[in-house]
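re: that chain from earlier
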Amino acid sequence: MPMKKLICLLLLTYMLPVTSCQDKLEPEVETNYLDYGTRKEMREQALRTLHDYYIVSDKSKNYYEVIAREADRFILNYYPAGELLSFCNDQGSGWSQQYRVDLSQLKRLADLSINLDTLHSFIYRDTIISKTAEWVEVKTNGEPTIHYR
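^ sequence. v structure.
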């Protein structure tokens, strides 16, 4: 085999996987991946993790999110400028809920250690936090695919 063909073959073998399998990341989104804990632990810590992650950030992004990739596969996304908290219960199943939440309300949810499984019923009883009237699209590094209302 001529040397040029061998070099081309080697380059294709090693470069193709590097260039074709990279995840496309949204430049406006800062993502914290949760890859530890049980389902219950991740869902109990998600709001606290999101709040703390946003607080210590340099505030250079438009969206901040926590994504559980393995066993639980949820997305919790916060858009501070629009005061939106969006939740995808299972990646691939679409966005489930979206709420108007300012930073003080996000802190309150985090301090109360609201489990994501009970988030909707808690917010339903809370007169300060409300569901969005119409769905507002958000940017994410997760894969929610579609949303349901």
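The beta strands are 29-34, 63-68, 75-79, 84-88, 97-100, 130-131.
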